[in-house]
Amino acid sequence: MTSVVEICERAAAAAPQVARLSGRSKDAALSMMADALHEAAPALMEANDADVEAARAAGTGDTILDRLTLTEKRLTSMAEGLRAVAAQPDPVGEITEGWKRPNGLTIEKVRVPLGVIAVIYEARPNVTADVAGLCLKSGNACVLRGSSMALRSNRAIVSVLTEAGRAGGIPVDAVQLIPDADRSSAVELMQAKGLVDLIVPRGGKALIDTIQEHATVPFIIDGDGNCHVYVDRSADLDMATRIVLNAKTQRPSVCNAAETLLVHQEVADKWLPEALSSLAGAGVEVRGDATVRALWPQANEATDEDWATEYLDLTIAVKVVDSIDAAIQHVNRWGTSNAEAIVTADLSAARRFTAEVDSGSIFVNASTRFSDGGEFGYGAEIGISTQKLHARGPMGLRELTTTKYVVWGEGQTRP
Amino acid sequence: MTSVVEICERAAAAAPQVARLSGRSKDAALSMMADALHEAAPALMEANDADVEAARAAGTGDTILDRLTLTEKRLTSMAEGLRAVAAQPDPVGEITEGWKRPNGLTIEKVRVPLGVIAVIYEARPNVTADVAGLCLKSGNACVLRGSSMALRSNRAIVSVLTEAGRAGGIPVDAVQLIPDADRSSAVELMQAKGLVDLIVPRGGKALIDTIQEHATVPFIIDGDGNCHVYVDRSADLDMATRIVLNAKTQRPSVCNAAETLLVHQEVADKWLPEALSSLAGAGVEVRGDATVRALWPQANEATDEDWATEYLDLTIAVKVVDSIDAAIQHVNRWGTSNAEAIVTADLSAARRFTAEVDSGSIFVNASTRFSDGGEFGYGAEIGISTQKLHARGPMGLRELTTTKYVVWGEGQTRP
Fold first, then answer.
1. What single DSSP character describes residue A285?
2. How many beta carbons lie within 10 A of that of residue A113, not counting itself?
3. B167 near A CB under 8 A
4. Contact: A402, B409; criterion CB under 8 Å
5. Which DSSP symbol is given to B284?
6. Which of B100, B191, B407, B408 should we substitute to test contact with A (largest number of A Cβ atoms within 10 Å)?
7. Is a pLDDT exceeding 90 seen at residue B183?
């Protein structure tokens, strides 16, 4: 079997060719890849069926089985994702800034690909196509390391993509899958320094810990989402109910779902009992501080552990705060810098919350569930960065690039 | 003595206050700091004299003594640096991108400070003022860890800056110096995770190795500069001589000085003997490949080790290449992604070299010595990044910031 290092070496060798592809070639190839996914639907479904069957036989839970399963709708959405990525402007070659110095030197800051991007991800075969599309469009080669549970599906998808890409002039080594998905292959990948330029770990705490302990390759953390919704005293309360319900229940298992609700004391009496009943009606377990429990006795008790927890489930922690300052402090203390929302009609409150909350995305009168590359208009998503360096929040094509300075002179020397 | 962690905690507590300072307050404070450096010149010189005397008594070499010494000219240039930084546009609050989604959400990408920036640097007291100025202007608190050799000078400078800043409304903990400069304080600093948002190590290989082994805080490597000058067959040969002499000899001890000269074979016969004689005349030792030694027998032999070496001294490695492809390959194999130059009159050669050389800064018909924050117009410099993530090349104010997304809605929820 080809080793992880060999795969990375091939990717590194292919990277300069991928970097030089014209936008037109890349877009044509992405479109051919989208067509090929449609055409290969029966074969892809068959490979996926085998994965799903094996996972079910191994006693895998329903949530994971659901993520693993390729449906016709999901295949269509993978193909649409590739077309949406093709429709984005080419980030490569963009001159992001440029100026002329007093000595006549013209300085350009030019966007260029990173080189080789590696992504470690969970059992979601659609990610395979998303990552391949984003990396190709941004001029990078990619090395994919999916879950062993999805290996047949991923192999089939990568094979369809590379065959279609080859016909469109894309080097075959531009998109490669690591064929064995045990822990050691992940560690080898995160230590392929000098071959891999960026690794994005998509997964739980164990993976993040492994990266932080073992990686020698630069990485971007796609971390926890302990997201907050703060209902200000000036909030439109019907809007607040809709946003909280959406942020908590529309898809509770993902990182941009809300985990804590903060309510200004001036609207707590009037709004909370009804809002919490609505949440409970949607199957949500409510854990509240003493004030919350006094207003709505069905609530369980919330402790500091609840403020710190990303439930990823139908549970919400609720706290009444006496001011927007207390709300901001709570978010900055317990949040994970992913996504937070304020519901307010007060401009000054909106401006303070957006300025003072330290997070990747801050929503005014909108659900945290919009913290997502697709929803931001990036076509697809490589992940959501919860760190501050290089990228923060949903990552699109630009986040997969670096820059170089190109300086034009006429013989200037430094005095 | 205050511990490193306590210093970092104070910085972290001050950071949100620094982040909220108006551009006007920051610029006024920087101007007061510049004035204060002038006024305190006698006290600063006295502190510096003590450092220099102790270093000389300890047998410190001339190059380091020179860097350590504060002259009136250097003090003036420190003050001018602060004023130049004040004259830059405020990076904080800049909306770098913004767009509206089909569902009516307005997305803004807003530049915000990183928080706390730590810099570890060598015995150059001027860096103290440069770093403090850049961090303040970019809305960050900073923790400075200079060389023990410059401790008295750094203490005096920080004290002058913080006193002037205090008068201008800057929190005193916005600029702090670590009072003991042994190795353990550096390691403590690079492990102050959750308190320090970015650490920039300015120093040699030992420091970089320590960072890569021990840092838990995110870092940006200000690494080696094995810089190249390539003289193309179409070069204006007089210009080539001027640029090579400048890049090699104007200040050989710094990272943007040239270390290797590549010459196209078509101009080697005509140009090399004269150019190498000029370099030798400026005190440079020439090490060449066989072709070079045949053309100019005074050259010593160059081996692979020479292609890999950053001499930081009056030595240059010289190689004759048979094509621009060979030149690009050589730079990409041996370079350290700092700064490279091509001397050419041929547009196609210039476009190929700038596109295909993988480096932080690429100069066409100009000296590599311009790879510098001040020369780029950034007022001062926090360092030159030789990595690809977050920042690449000379770092100015923007590189000391991150972004957050601010999204404005009217009650949007995700369907």
1. E
2. 28
3. no
4. no
5. P
6. B407
7. no
pLDDT digits (tens, 9 = 90+) for B368-395: 999 999 899 988 888 899 999 999 999 9
- Integer Cα distance of B383 and B130 in angstroms: 10
Domains belonging to chain B, first-starting first, are: 4-220+395-407 (3.40.605.10), 227-370 (3.40.309.10)
Alpha carbon A22 to its chain centroid, in Å, reads: 27
A48 by Cβ neighbours in 10 Å (0-12 / 13-18 / 19+) ranks as: buried
Question: Distance between CA A301 and CA A290 in Å, rounded?
Answer: 8
B20 and A355 within 8 Å at the Cβ level: the answer is yes
Residue A208, amino acid: I
The DSSP code for B146 is -
Residue stretches of chain A with pLDDT short of 50 = none
Q: What is the pLDDT of residues B120-153, one digit of tens each?
A: 999 999 999 999 999 999 999 999 999 999 999 9
362-391 in A: which are within 8 Å (CB) of B?
Answer: 362-367, 369-371, 375-377, 387-390
> Quick one: tokens of A241?
């109910």
User: Closest Cα of chain B to A361: distance in Å?
Assistant: 4
Strand locations in B214-371 (E):
227-231, 258-264, 285-288, 300-301, 315-321, 339-343, 361-366
Residue closest to A399 by CA, chosen among A113, A44, A26: A113
Measured CA to CA, the distance from residue B97 to residue B109 in angstroms comes to 5
The DSSP secondary-structure symbol of A132 reads H
pLDDT at A297: 97
User: A404 and B359: CB-CB below 8 Å?
Assistant: yes
What percentage of chain B carries pLDDT values higher than 70?
100
Provide the CA A227 distance to its chain's centre, in angstroms. Answer: 14
> Which residue from A258, A255, A364 is spatially nearest to A319, judged by alpha carbons?
A258
Query: Cα distance from A43 to chain B (closest Cα, Å)?
Result: 31
d(CA B117, CA B221): 14
Rounded CA-CA distance B349/B364 in Å is: 10
Residue indicated by tokens 């003594």: B65
Classified as helix, coil or strand, A262 is strand
* Number of residues in chain B: 415
Tokens of B297: 């027998």
HEC letters along A340-397: EEEECCCHHHHHHHHHHCCCCEEEEEECHHHCCCCCCCCCCCCCEECCCCCCCEECCC
Task: Return d(Cα B86, Cα A59) in angstroms, integer.
Answer: 63
Residues 81 through 100 of chain A touching chain B, CB cutoff 8 Å: 99
Partners of A341 in beta bridges? A229, A363
Amino acid found at A58? A
Tell me the per-residue pLDDT of A232-284, one tens digit each, with 9 for 90 and over.
999 999 999 999 999 999 999 889 999 999 999 999 999 999 999 999 999 99
Q: How far is CA B80 from CA A243, B126, B343, in A?
A: 52, 11, 33
